[in-house]
Amino acid sequence: MARRRNLSQPWARPVLGAIALLGTLLTGYLTVVKLTGGEALCPSTGCNTVLSSSYADVFGLPLALLGCLAYASMALLALVPLRLRGEETPDSSESIWETRTWMPLFLLSTAMAFFSGYLVYVLTTQLQAICLYCWASALFSLLLWVTVLVGRSWEDRGGLIFNGTLVTMGVLLFALSINSPGLASQPRPEATVTAPSSPAALALAQHLSNSGAVMYGAYWCPHCQDQKKLFGIEGAMSIPYVECDASGPNAEPQKCRAAGIDGFPTWKIEEQTLSGTQTLEDLAEASGYQGSREF
Predict the structure, then answer these.
(1) Average pLDDT over the chain, rounded to whole?
(2) What is the DSSP string of 156-200?
(3) β-sheet with 241-243: strand ranges across
(4) Residue 105 has what pLDDT?
(5) Which of 52, 198, 255, 283 has its CA 20 to 30 A from that of 184?
(6) pLDDT tens string 45-76
(7) Torsion-angle region of residue 115: left (phi > 0), alpha (psi -120 to 50) or beta?
(8) Torsion-angle region of residue 152: left (phi > 0), alpha (psi -120 to 50) or beta?
(9) How far apart are CA 215 and CA 210, in angstroms?
(10) In the CATH scheme, what is the homologous superfamily, with its name and number, of domain 199-287?
(11) Nearest partner of 2 among 95, 98, 91, 96, judged by Cα
(12) Is the pLDDT of residue 182 over 60?
């Protein structure tokens, strides 16, 4: 009787399962943060900048939720066949369940890896934010794809390339569709400040402008909107503001890149860099404001 071949490496599925479970935990955490309106634990403001951007929602759903479902599906496809050994296939020592799930593993990991590549492009060119969670998820997706490729001896490589090309084209069309008007989640409008400015808030805004301080932000950023609202109508119009998103009004993204901005809002006051929404008291202290502080 002919000896059956081992088409798959014994370590491949446990490794795939471990990476997929890590990705599920990461994106699951971000999904909870997004749905509850909280802030992610992150060493930079870039993570929350990404979560609050228009790119964080797809067709009304958190993008992190879709990622969580994809990672969970990878984990199930990788690990469940190890428990359902069943009958072996005629030409290999794999079980039927193992054989049937390798192609879905390849197709899903290919879609995840290439879509992660698109998200990295958006992160670096559009949002210009440092998001460790985003880079970690992109790394997990790439590792899943590479592990699927090297973890099995693929006999029909022509079919593999053909199927991979179809999936890549589908990912490209999906990426284009979520940026199309009427399909993508629309960017949040610029802040509408309705409360009048107190004399102290207006004086602080004018002081910040005269002292050379700058607030960097994006029109869709809710934290930037909150910052402007603290100043009131007149004050919000007086603060020195630079729009970092190229699609925003009076955008100057080159200034944001030159200043090394990695999240919104960011204040540059003399030699200080203040990240996130600041209280007026903190801005007054940082800028050396000597006027009334009855904000």
Answers:
(1) 87
(2) -HHHHHHHHHHHHHHHHHHHHHTTSTTTSPPPPPPP---SPPPHH
(3) 241-243, 214-217, 266-269, 272-275
(4) 97
(5) 255
(6) 778 888 877 788 888 889 999 999 999 999 99
(7) alpha
(8) beta
(9) 13
(10) Glutaredoxin (3.40.30.10)
(11) 91
(12) no
- CA diameter of the chain: 93
What is the pTM assigned to this prediction? 0.69
Q: Which DSSP letter does residue 270 get?
A: T
196 is written with which tokens? 């009048």
Tokens encoding 146: 């590479």
Q: What SS3 class is residue 251?
A: strand
Indicate the domain borders of the chain. 12-177, 199-287
215: tokens are: 């607030």
Residues 256 and 30: their CA atoms lie apart, in Å, by 26
Beta strand residue intervals within the chain, DSSP E? 57-58, 61-62, 214-217, 241-243, 266-269, 272-275
Tokens linked to 62: 């958190």
The answer to whether 186 and 219 are in contact (CB under 8 A) is no
The three-class DSSP label of residue 268 is strand
> Across the strands, what pairs with 57?
62
| 188 or 172, higher pLDDT | 172
Asked if residues 203 and 173 have their Cβ atoms less than 8 Å apart, the reply is no
The token pair at 60 is 């009304």
The token duo for 184 is 């993508």
Structure tokens at 139: 């790394």
Contacts made by residues 150-153, CB under 8 angstroms, sequence distance 24+: 150/9, 150/12, 151/8, 151/9, 151/11, 151/12, 151/13, 151/15, 151/16, 152/7, 152/8, 152/9, 152/12, 152/102, 153/5, 153/7, 153/8
Radius of gyration from C-alpha coordinates of the chain: 25
Residues 13 and 81: beta-carbon distance below 8 Å: yes
Q: Which two tokens stand for residue 57?
A: 């929602």
